[in-house]
Amino acid sequence: MTEDGACRRIAERFLRPASYGPPSRLEGVRVDRRLPDPNGWPVYDVEPSASAEQKARPKSVVVYVHGGGWVNEIAPQHWTLIARIARETNQRVIVPIYPLLPSGTAREARDGVVELIRAELDSDHQVRLAGDSAGGQISLSAVLHLRAEGVQLPATTLLSPALDLTWKNPQIDVVQPFDPWLARPGGRLLAQEWSGDDDIEDPGVSPLFGDLNGLGPLTILTGTRDVLNPDAHVLKDKARDAEVSLAWHEGEGQLHVYALLPTKAGEQAAKTIVESLRPAT
After folding, report:
1. What pTM value is reported for the model?
2. pLDDT tens digit string along 57-77?
3. Which of 35, 86, 155, 208 could bond 93 through an S-S bridge, CB–CB 3.0 to 4.6 Å?
């Protein structure tokens, strides 16, 4: 929440990198790490356990980009949701472990995710994309980049996405007293570090500044007690102005990334995420 806290977290992650491996047991899925790692990153494939139904499915995959404020590693709650997506949609989920602060940058993360998606498209796979928080920023930046190349994904799902890394939206001040987790001072410092050599308003850093025309369908989940909620409303309005197909889900009284929390609202949001990523029959 504070600049000092953000600086301490960056230093802590540099000195003591967190574990990123999946839990030893995830129900109903098989997890494999790709070797060698694409881009020099660890990348995992999470697949539903083999079944006749799985073999009959069309080749369709999901890329899931985890959140964590660009400084925190993938968490067990992410792995649980990823396994659920794989199990309940019967798709392989690709999980990139992208470089974090202080070494990673927005451009590096976006380009690496784009490269993973291109590789799947080149293998004649249909690709859906999802990301939460910082991973939502990377995901939307990636689909904007792909759209500029003439590629439109059939589904992109964003949970509590970071969208405008300038943190200038005045409505943040209205929400701030009700958000126990995030705040402008720490978020702005992390955002400045994450932007690297790029301008903070570059769509590769702050995708809210991008042109949304021609994007594939978007699903947005956001809670009203999240300081990122005001920017999600701006994205909703911009998407509708650009005639982008949009499914909007706002959790009244819900916190940041509430779909990862063990609550009734979290369970309903997780179901929404799964359904948004299910291949059309």
Report:
1. 0.96
2. 558 999 999 999 999 999 999
3. 86
